[in-house]
Fold this protein.
Amino acid sequence: MIKSMIFICPLILCSCRMRITSFNVNGIRSFSKYVMKSCRLRFNEYVKNILRADILCVQETRGREGALGEFHSLRDYITFTNTNKTNSSRSGVSTMVSKKLYCRGVLDSPFAEDGRSLLTDHGEFKVLNLYFPFFDESSERDKSEVIGFYDAIGEFIRGHDNIIMCGDFNAVYSIIDHYQFYSELLRIQRKDRPGLEEGAKERRRARKSPTRLELPYEFYAEDALESYLLETEQRKWLRSLIDGGEYIDAYRALCKRPESYTCWNTMLNLRPRNLGTRIDYILIPARFLNRLKDCDIQPEIHGSDHCPVYAEIDFDVVDDGNNILSKRKNNLLDFFGL
């Protein structure tokens, strides 16, 4: 006896252009206060009307769960948050999804308990909101822990072809995305560069008294500068990811402009001079490239040491009965588990 089988096909409500925005706000409560003071807008209205985000991925939210309640009762967005369980003053990521969209909920991802990742499932695609750890030689953090994070994310996304990664990667992979390296590149390319004879055997020379705005070396050739850039493991990891072809840097797919920075050293007041780095990315699977319609950075947006980056991508809005956004009327109660 052959039993009849009923398949429920997802209902495509509409095809629309979604704007996914990533923004390291350097403390969401302080940023919200800045928005109110400078723009006279509540956070919900700012996200909707200024950022115009359908999905907003925020990094460095910071704060205990109970202190972030106001961001879990927004009029037009459902908010998902992963906080740092051991130190609430560090890290934290939130993803805010327009109530007009589709979302099945949050899935497991590496280092979610550290407030450094959050994966939301939107059916046709998933969004992985990431805040990569930072490391330098003066940092208290062990370098192996930082590299371990990058490797874990690389292993996690392997085999997936529908995860959009966005966030603060704390690394550049190209000379033109770091002001010190780009400045050195321009110096190399100048014909009147002093002391750099054609065919010199030295590939780089230590600067005697480098300023805080210079690299510790001066270089004789572009390939030597490139090699120095990739001596950092995090940069090498990111370059390998992009060169592998499975993921596309959405911004660079549409814009090759140098000096397009998303982060500046505010202690040195470098933002007015646009001396920064581009370490905030939206990376899309290669198969979504033909759906990518726009991507840009927004340096005119202040309130943090970073600025937002957004991508507009065409997707179908579906309804298969699993859309939790239509079921959660007040996600403030859900946030507190009530």
Q: What stands out?
A: Residues 174-231 form one domain. The longest strand covers residues 11-24. The first helix runs from residue 28 to 39.
